[in-house]
Amino acid sequence: MDIYHVMRTTGAVRVFTGEPLPDETLTRILDNARFAPSGGNRQGTHVVAVRDPATLQALADLTDTGFRRYIAQQRHGESPWNPLHPMGVSADELAAVRVPRAAQLLDADVALVICVDLGVVAAFDQDLDRIGLVAGASVYPLVWNILLAARSEGFGGVLTTMVVPEEPKVKELLGIPGDYAIAAVVPLGKPVKQFTKLTRKPVSEFVTRERFDGPAF
């Protein structure tokens, strides 16, 4: 499959048919995805492939905290989990939110829990007065490669982070060492509907020449 076609049609897949994703295919996906770059080529990622229904249910339960705040803030007209704007939702409003079934996890054939060893990342932004982002450069290229490879194989998935607020409990559930961070959970399966076209901003709307306030590229 043409690489540009894959890039333009790899959408967020959250609804699956239930068709199995064989270990052989998953191995091929991961075998190609592993060539993603990482800082210093340290390759500090670890992937836990979860198929056990009980463990998937436990992971789904641990998304409740993330979903509850996300939904409550969205209803309140806020940008959910935004680091610059404090949450204005009350505890009672949070408690009143009914969390939907985490179908994207429970109906997936496998969920990949993507971890990164914080002992080998170079967080160049660690002393800046903002949320750290740079360490993600050592893990998110792998996540995206997994999704591209899955698309090429006729499967799909989505990068989710709803379990991260409950990271200590996820670590206990899966035996993840203390020095590792959970970067994403990626459910994979056969899409009910395969994307053929995605909608994105044109280049001229997000690329400028020479400066942030420079002319459109």
Automatic annotation (TrEMBL):
Top-rank taxon, per record: Bacteria
Domain Nitroreductase: residue ranges: 12-190
Keyword Transcription part of the UniProt annotation: no
GO terms, molecular function: oxidoreductase activity
CDD domains documented for this protein: Nitro_FMN_reductase (cd02062)
UniProt keyword annotations, A-Z: Oxidoreductase
Pfam families tied to this protein: Nitroreductase (PF00881)
Family the UniProt entry places it in: Belongs to the nitroreductase family.
Matches recorded under PANTHER family: NAD(P)H NITROREDUCTASE YDGI-RELATED (PTHR43673), NADH DEHYDROGENASE_NAD(P)H NITROREDUCTASE XCC3605-RELATED (PTHR43673:SF10)
Protein name: Nitroreductase family protein
Organism: Mycolicibacterium frederiksbergense
